[in-house]
Amino acid sequence: MTALGGNAKEALRSIVERVERLNEEKKAIAEDIREVFKEAKGNGFDVKAIRKIIKLRAEDEAKRREEQAVLDTYMHALGLLLD
């Protein structure tokens, strides 16, 4: 096994510590998001629907429209969508 020199050792330590800090921030943000969804549920909103809306808003509009058109076509073919 090769030992790391002083600069490489410090760079590695810095990277590891930064990732550790970011992971802690990510945990805190995830907890904040859970709290917002709890609030939404407490106010009578459907959390599954909100999650779906958030996912849809993050997608490319053209892709979303294309997927919706295919879904509508299939639903119509199966009698799940009225004219």
Please provide a written account of the structure:
This protein is 80% helix and 0% strand. With 83 residues, it is mainly α. It has two domains: 1-45; 47-83. The longest helix has 37 residues, at 6-42. 0% of the residues are buried.
Short note summarizing the structure:
The chain is mainly α. It folds into two domains: 1-45; 47-83.
Helices, by number, come to 3
**Span from first to last CA?**
70 Å
Helical content (DSSP H or I, runs of 4+): over 70%
How large a portion of the residues is in β-strands, by DSSP E? under 5%
Estimate the mean pLDDT confidence.
Answer: 94
Number of strands: 0
| Count of the separate structural domains | 2
- Protein structure class: mainly alpha
What's the helix-strand series?
HHH
- The stretches of 5 or more residues where confidence is low (pLDDT under 50) are none
Shape: elongated
How much is the radius of gyration in Å? 23 Å
Largest sheet: none
Write the layout of secondary structure elements.
Blueprint: H1 6-42, H2 47-58, H3 61-77
Task: Please name the defining characteristics of this protein.
single chain; 83 residues; mainly alpha; 2 domains; 3 helices; 80% helix
